[in-house]
Amino acid sequence: MTTEKPHISVKNLNVHIDGNHILKNISIDIPDKKVTSFIGPSGCGKTTLLKTFNRLLDRNGNVEITGQVLVDGVDLYSPDTEVTSIRKKMGLLSQRPFPLPMNIYDNVAYGARIHGQRDKKELDKIVEHYLRGVSLWDEVKDRLKDPATRLSIGQQQRLCLARGLAVEPEIILGDEPTSALDPISTQHIEELFLKLKDKYTLVLVTHILRQARRVSDYIVFIYMGEIIEFGTTEEVLLNPKEKLTKDYVKGYIS
Amino acid sequence: MKNIRLTIDKITGNSFLVLTLLSTVTVVLIGVGLYYKSLPILQNSSLSSLLLSAEWKPFKSSFGFLAYIAGTLWVTAIAIIIALPISLLTAIYLSEYAHVKVKKVLLPPIDLLSGIPPVIYGVWGVLVIVPFVQEKLAIHFVEFSSGYSTLAGGIVLAIMIIPLIISILLEVFNTVPDGLREASLSVGATQWETIKHVVLKKSLPGILAAVVLAVSRAFGETIAVLMVCGNISEIPHSIFDPCYPLPALIANNYGEMLSVPMYESALMLAAFILFVIIFLFNTISRIILYRLEGRMN
Ligand SMILES: Nc1ncnc2c1ncn2[C@@H]1O[C@H](COP(=O)(O)OP(=O)(O)OP(=O)(O)O)[C@@H](O)[C@H]1O
Ligand SMILES: [Mg+2]
Asked: Which of A135, B22, B192, B245 is such that its CA lies 20 to 30 A from the CA of B104?
């Protein structure tokens, strides 16, 4: 691919979990300011690959990682890399929403407070700005002090997105971020992604090929821990080169 | 015939209910039984002279329980004050920081610790803790202590309940979904910030429940405490003084001196007081727990 200096660049990445070879020789440059989707059958390693991007994979499990993941040129896995500042560059949306055990306001303000913002007025501004950004403000502006768990699942997921955006990341990682949502909320999130890609680099995992088609510019097809094909959405979904990809997207084409 | 499955379902449901009621009824029966057995002494002396006096002279028919109640509360309080921070930090380390391999090595000994019979803790307390308190601690603070003391009782008890608290806390931390930790870490929070703002906060009701269980256990622990706390029926004025908790009183004396009038009834009242203390403690903490959970959701 042809980006000058990509945010995320993976080189010869190999991951073993409990002795099993989960990711095999992954090398990829994620295009900047685009939406890149990972597709592939269940268990092929999509989540695992996504988690290597912000070092959530090797927290205290039996995980061995070799190779490089460069984020803005810094190797995530070199021993003297400061992980928290790199994680801050990436917002994370997981399969189901995980609102923190605090109220709506504090959820959005969480990251800003962690990074030293104490000024009440500034925090108010941040909270409102990002809640508006995910079109949640009007729904919650009168109950910012309610526990975040009282929101509907769809609202919770948008809240989580706002929480991630509030630390001003450059990259957004989403692991099947709509799989727990109803069609309307899903559409909501998808629209947000399309809006966000002017400013952010997005990496999504999805099982829904239609969604991949709707939102992504590039698609990565992963099979049994290997990247089989990487190309534009049109190429991979409509004109796959590899037989494995063809078989997988067949359902979509017909 | 088609209703036979429904009938079986009904029977099973009801028999489970009966079994559940049975254990509830047992608790009530124990309480009522103890109360009934302590009636003679309750009718003989006023409640205030029983609970607020520390004079224990069975032959003169004066039975003041204050020293025993104080002993019980002191030993338990010391045990929790020592055990809680240690267990909490250990559980946090094991659950949040330790690599799976480290966990595999460290967990079995902790589990084993909770399986050791109390009497062994008692012997170990006499051999190690009592001399330690006498020679290393007490001399800096008081003129004389035999080492058999409230503090020794508290330390031995603390060591007994630490594995219990740790294993409950590990269960509690385990119920915090990893996704929550990842959500916090992913905005750039450090491990410790994540523990403080997310894991501990989410676990607060569970931590409280663990403390409640440990305290209830500590109130009733008998043998190990009895072997090291000195068993002198006076209100301890410092932690280096001996004390005499209620369970020790019952265990040491039941079956002896029962010819002394009222003595058996007095011991039954001791048991009843212990029962009430634990009952009250459990009820109050349940209410707090309920409030806490209500506020969090
Ligand atoms: N913590 C773990 N311990 C052991 N094996 C794991 C662990 N995490 C992932 N794996 C294994 O790694 C492989 C890839 O898992 P991963 O979650 O990345 O798949 P996925 O592509 O995201 O699947 P899905 O679409 O079902 O979410 C699977 O075979 C899984 O069993
Ligand atoms: Mg997955």
From this structure: B192
Q: What is the DSSP string of A182-210?
A: -HHHHHHHHHHHHHHTTT-EEEEE-S-HH
The answer, yes or no, to whether residue B2 has pLDDT greater than 80, is: no
User: Is residue B17 domain-resident?
Assistant: no
Mean pLDDT of chain B: 92
| Chain B residues whose beta carbon lies within 8 Å of the beta carbon of residue A59 | 181
Mutate to test the interface with A, among B92, B182, B187 (most CBs of A within 10 A): B187
Query: How many angstroms is it from B264 CA to the middle of ligand 2?
Result: 67
Does the ipTM surpass 0.95? no
Residue B6 lies in a domain: no
CATH number of domain containing B200: 1.10.3720.10
Q: Which residues of B touch A50 (CB under 8 A)?
A: none
Contacts of A60 in chain B (CB under 8 A): 96-100
- Compute CA distances B228 → A195, B28, B42, B128, B245, whole Å: 71, 33, 31, 10, 11
Q: pLDDT tens-digit profile of A139-158?
A: 999 999 999 999 999 999 99
Q: How many domains does chain B have?
A: 1
Q: Which residue of B has its CA nearest to A106?
A: B197
Any domain includes B285: yes
Q: How far is A233 from chain B (nearest CA, A)?
A: 28
Does A90 sit within 8 Å of B183, measured CB to CB? no
CB pairs under 8 A between A and B: 79
- Is pLDDT above 90 for A250? no
Q: Show the domain range for B63.
A: 51-296
